[in-house]
User: What shape does this take?
Amino acid sequence: MVQLIVDQLLAYGIRKVVVSPGSRNAPFSIAFDEHPEIETFVVHDERSAGFIALGMAQELGETIALCCTSGSACLNYYPAVSEAFYRSIPLLVLTADRPAVWINHGDGQTIVQRDVYKNHIMGSLEMDEDVFDQKSIEQHQEDLAHLLAITTSNWKGPIHLNVGLNEPLYQTVEKTVNYGKILTLGKATNRMDASNMEVIVQEINQSKVLILCGQMTQDLKVQQELIKLASFPNVVVLVENTSNLQHERFIHCIDRTLNGFDQKNEVYQPDILITIGGAVVSKRIKAYLRNVGIKKHYKIGAEFPEMDTYRCLTQAIPLEPSDFFEQINEYELTANTHNFNGKWKAVDIVAKDRSLDFVSEFSNLTDMQVFQNIQDYLPEDHILHLANSSVVRYAQLFDPLPGVRYESNRGTSGIDGSTSTALGAAIVNPRKQHVLISGDISFLYDSNALWYEPFPRNFKLIVIQNYGGGIFKIIPGPADSKQREKYFEAKQVKSPASIARAFGLQTKTISSLDELIEYLPLFFDPSNETQVLEVQTDDANNAIDLDRYFEFLRN
Assistant: This one.
């Protein structure tokens, strides 16, 4: 059975496996290790392992396998599984188990693993050594091929294979048969019916159109098609840094621009909304679009067709965004009388110019100062990973840097695997320099990522030490609660640099603006051995500085 599974993985191009040490999964560990076409990565902590595999899949654009022992081990994969589900990232979660007859009968390290991820998985399959024989091989091949075919479908995501194994677990047998089998899937269409597309084009010609781009991998074809559309006066293209779309015709800093006009003013309100990509960071644009009375909303892409983020969904169109926009651009769009683009762009330009003049009034180092200077010193051609909460929001206040790719776990927006995900990407792409910006709580939460060996030299971390969850001083509600510091912000005094040193990494701690300006260029130098930079900021004034920034833009 193990041989069949390994052959099927190879048939579907799965050649990288993140293995967490254990006993029940020993047959898989041995088989993977001895196979010349499979590369294994050993990660002890299953929660970290799940996110490391996620980062690998994100970086390579291919399915990565996870393999763990039985019992509670598989539960630690769940945060990464849910993140992969909402970001449509393919993972194969291979969990070793005892045969079904021993579940809930007092055998050690045993829980109910069947369907354990059922709400956040694209497909699952149970295989049990007790019912596996020569007569059933063909059916098992068929079932497994159906499961693995999901990894090559239009709507990808994590899949779960749970395998019940009997002892002995450490013996090997000679392999005599190749069991690999591939199912041929129907090819997805890349064109919309002409009559339906003509209706949409006519609507676009007569309306104010807002195209909102969520989290995406870099896609130059989408970018080129959107550049064409953004040349029309009735079309506005909003992107975030995590959209990885950059052009002067686009509006990159959504919150900065929304801050500059009266949101009740109808001249800025779209008639038609077109959305592509995954999660959108800006809470302001979500609130705005839910309240302006959108007439039509077209959601483009195969994933989550029922998702109605803005409560105005007209139609989900299961085409690749590049194909959809290319087809639109085949028609002769008219330069209608709406100066929708010009009005949004005028506000955007003023806000951008004003932002360059903002200077913090605090002598102590603030979060805003940190991001301003990272923006100035981060080299091009880096991959910038952003942890969640305040970090990803601060990053959205600044225009994307040319040549920099932006990544973040925005599927569930959790803080639990940011370091591991970035680490996984760095491991499989050693030719690129990877930098993670993280808050202190997120870093502490995922510190077992630093356990990985050998730790890649192309990966560096900036940890903003503001002594707690700074996001709760920024967002309405918890900011004014007397329970904020203890229960929401979770104020802490642990040193991220000390923890990193315990894992054998080189660190540096700074606490002033002058130190930051002096050291950042050295830190980003690949030859500099410092891998973790702890930046201590003024937790009392961070939120005040951010409020001052938005007030400065308005005046």
